[in-house]
Design goal:
401 residues, mainly alpha, 3-stranded mixed β-sheet, binds iron/sulfur cluster
C-alpha cells in the first residue's frame, strides 16, 4: 500500500479508459459549482445519470462519466494526464478516481482495511512481481486520511468471526508444507466448514476447526493426483464460463483474444460439447503447466489468491450470502489458471513474469469488475438448487475432482 504510486501517462492500461466511472453525489454537486468555465462546461456534458438496479431489487440513480472516443474518459488528456487534476486539485476528483486501485473498508467506525486491486498494472506489478509472500501491517491512521476516498460496503458491520476466518485462510494459502493446489482445496474446505461455526460457542467451534485443518496441512500429498480425475467436467465448466463472457459485445479486445484463443487452441467450438480430442489436448497442456509453470510461478499465484482474500472476503451482518465472494474468487482463479495453461501452450514456452502479470491484470479487469457477469455465472450454476450448496459443490469440484 505505501509503495503504490500511479504511473499516470506511462500506464499501459489506464483506468481512465474502457469502463464506466461512477461519480459520487458530493462530487456532482461540487462540479456543478466549479469556478473554471471550461471544466464546468465539459462536466455538464460529460456526466450522465442513469438508474441502476440495487442488490435488494430497488433501483437507484447513479452518475457516471460518459466515455468518449476509444472508450476514453472525456477528461483524459492526450498526454495521459487528467484535465480535472491539471486544472484544479487532486481533492477535486471523484471518490472513485481518487481511490482506485485502492480498495478501502471501514468497519464499525474503528477499524479500516486497505488493499490494492490487481486490475491496475502498477498494483499488479507490486503484488505479483515479488518472490516474497505478501505481508500485512496494522497502524494508526488519522481519519482525515480517508476523507474524500471511496469506502466500500460503507455502514456495514463486520461479523465477529470474520477476521479469524480470513486470517486462517491466508495462513493456509501461505503454508509452504503443501503445493498451492492442495492449499486452495483445504482453504475451500475450511471456508465452507467455517460457515457452520456461527451461533453458540462459535469461537470454540472455529478453534477446533482450525486445529483440524492445521493437522491436514501437515499431511503430505502427491501433487499430480490432485486434479486428474475430473478434467472433462472442469473443461466443460470453463468453456461455459468463457462463452458466457464472450457474449458481451463490449468485452475488451485483449481479453476476447485470450478467451477465443484458449477455446480454439483446444479445438473447442462454441455451443458444442467437449470432444475427446479437446480433453486430451487440455490434459496434456495442464501437465506441462504443472511441471514447468507452477515451479516458477507458485509464489506469484499464492500472492494473487492471498490478495483476493484480503481485498474481497468479508462476512458482514448485512450480507448473509457472503459465500458468493468466495465463489467469485474461486471462479476467477479457475479462469486465470485456464488462460495461463492456454498461454503456455500457445507459446510452447514458460512465459516471462510481465506476460503472466498482464494476463492476470487483464482478466481481473474483464471478469473481476463485472458484477453482472459474476451474478450470471452464479445463476447458471444454481438453477433450481439451494444457492449456497450449488456454489459450494462447484467450488469443491473445480478445485478437486
Ligand atoms: S490503472 Fe493504476 S497506474 Fe494506471 S492510471 Fe490507473 S491508477 Fe494509475
Amino acid at each position: 500500500m505505501d509503495d503504490f504510486i500511479c504511473t499516470g501517462s506511462l500506464c499501459p492500461d489506464t483506468c481512465c479508459q474502457g469502463w464506466e466511472i461512477v461519480i459520487d453525489e458530493a462530487t456532482c454537486e461540487r462540479y456543478a459549482k466549479m469556478p473554471d468555465g471550461e471544466v464546468r462546461d465539459l462536466l455538464s456534458r460529460a456526466i450522465v445519470h442513469r438508474q441502476e438496479e440495487q442488490a435488494d431489487g430497488s433501483s437507484a440513480e447513479i452518475a457516471c462519466i460518459r466515455m468518449g472516443k476509444g472508450q476514453r474518459c472525456l477528461f483524459l488528456r492526450n498526454d495521459g494526464w487528467c484535465l480535472i487534476q491539471r486544472k484544479t486539485t487532486e481533492t477535486n476528483l471523484s471518490e472513485t478516481c481518487r481511490t482506485y486501485p485502492r480498495v478501502i473498508y471501514c468497519w464499525n467506525e474503528s477499524y479500516a482495511e486497505r488493499a490494492l486491486c490487481v486490475s491496475c498494472p502498477e498494483a499488479a506489478r507490486l503484488i505479483l512481481g515479488t518472490d516474497e509472500p505478501l505481508r500485512f501491517h496494522t497502524k494508526q491512521l488519522p481519519e482525515a486520511e480517508l476523507a474524500g476516498l471511496r469506502i466500500t460496503d460503507e455502514g456495514e458491520h463486520l461479523r465477529a468471526d470474520c477476521l479469524p476466518l480470513r486470517r486462517f485462510i491466508v495462513h493456509i494459502l501461505q503454508s509452504d508444507t503443501q503445493p498451492l493446489a492442495r492449499r486452495l482445496q483445504l482453504a475451500d474446505e475450511f471456508f465452507w466448514a467455517a460457515t457452520d461455526c456461527s451461533g453458540h460457542h462459535a469461537d470454540k467451534k472455529q478453534q477446533d476447526l482450525q486445529a483440524a485443518f492445521e493437522a491436514q496441512l501437515a499431511v503430505e500429498v502427491d501433487p499430480p493426483a490432485l486434479l486428474k480425475n475430473n478434467d472433462a467436467w472442469r473443461l466443460a465448466q470453463l468453456q461455459q464460463l468463457l462463452e458466457l463472457r464472450l457474449k458481451n459485445p463490449e468485452l475488451r479486445p485483449d481479453f476476447r483474444w485470450r478467451a477465443e484463443g484458449a477455446l480454439k487452441g483446444w479445438g473447442m467450438t462454441v455451443g458444442e460439447a467437449v470432444s475427446a480430442d479437446s480433453l486430451a489436448r487440455y490434459e496434456e497442456d495442464q501437465s506441462v503447466y504443472q511441471l514447468f509453470f507452477l515451479p516458477e510461478y507458485q509464489q506469484l499465484l499464492e500472492n494473487y489468491l492471498v490478495n483476493a482474500v484480503f481485498k474481497n472476503l468479508f462476512m458482514t451482518e448485512e450480507q448473509p450470502d457472503y459465500y458468493r465472494e468466495w465463489f467469485r474468487l474461486v471462479l476467477q482463479f479457475s479462469l486465470v489458471r485456464c488462460l495461463l495453461i492456454a498461454q503456455l501452450a500457445a507459446r510452447q514456452d514458460v512465459p516471462d513474469r510481465e506476460s503472466v502479470i498482464e494476463l492476470i491484470q487483464q482478466t481481473t479487469r474483464a471478469i473481476g469488475h463485472d458484477a453482472l457477469y459474476l451474478d450470471q455465472a452464479a445463476a447458471s450454476l444454481t438453477v433450481g438448487q439451494d444457492a449456497a450448496q450449488a456454489l459450494q459443490a462447484f467450488c469443491q469440484r473445480i478445485l478437486k475432482g
